Amino acid sequence: MDTQQISALAHAMAEVPGPPHPSGVTHVVIPHTRLFTVIGNHLAQHRGLSLVAIGLSVHIQSLPSGARIGIKVLATRFPESETRIASALRELERHGYLQRTRSRLPSGRIVTRTVSFNQPGVSPQQVPAATAPPPRAAPVPPPPGPAPVPDQPRLAPEPTPPPVLVPAPTAPKPPPPPLPRPAAPTPELHSAAAALLAGLRRDTPQLVLSSSDIEQLAPAVATWLERDTPPDTVRRTLTADLPHPLKHPAKLLKHRLTALLPPPLPGASVFTPVRRPVPLQNCDGCDRAFRATEPGHCRDCRIDLREAA
Description:
Shape: rod-shaped
Helix content: 25-40%
CATH superfamily of one domain: Winged helix-like DNA-binding domain superfamily/Winged helix DNA-binding domain
Structural class: mainly alpha
Largest sheet: 2 strands, antiparallel
Strand content: 5-15%
CATH class of one domain: Mainly Alpha
């Protein structure tokens, strides 16, 4: 019949006396023989540090020299966020368990040098240099040789930073040309231009203009009409080949009205304004309607008056 084997841990647990209080803690202490780190109670029971900071300091002190402990590296190892890890590192710095300094390498790269202290309040200059253990005695004592040099981790060479390309200075962008304006602006010309702009959305829904846009663009359209450009031609020029989607219709119309402005007709010394119809007048003699710029007599009454004189 096989004999039941009892592990050292189970045997130790069986011999642990009960705690004096139901809520008290009972320690099961098994000595470590390898892979352990000595931590002082001043850290483990620190009243001013958070649990995250205490645990992070224990983890850092357990790492070998040269290990990377950046915020992003630590965030990949533990479930805490980068914000909590950064806050815990600042706590350790304030209480003297950690020191971080930034320095520039000969290559120009800026790196962060981190020093971890198992005793707070000690500067790196006060830490005694480590000495190598004395050589073990052999049956025939050889002459003392040099102390063994511990293996140092081989660091990869610093990468050469790429050259910084500085763009050549460019000339400042010239301001956009101003909107054209008619040489002889009239209320009728402005009304015709505003009506043309407001009616663009009937056939082209993309060209919906606000009242302020129409007031700004109306002088340019009036210039086209003043240069004897038919309204249908102006409308086709403004609505042809529109981009999709059209984000800024007013800017597009401003560009076309300025860049595509036709020249005045050959032989015209000045821009010809839009012809206004001659108003109707009632004759002062026969009360018959006739067209004239000012009130007076019609042509027949003027002839009769000249004959009577």
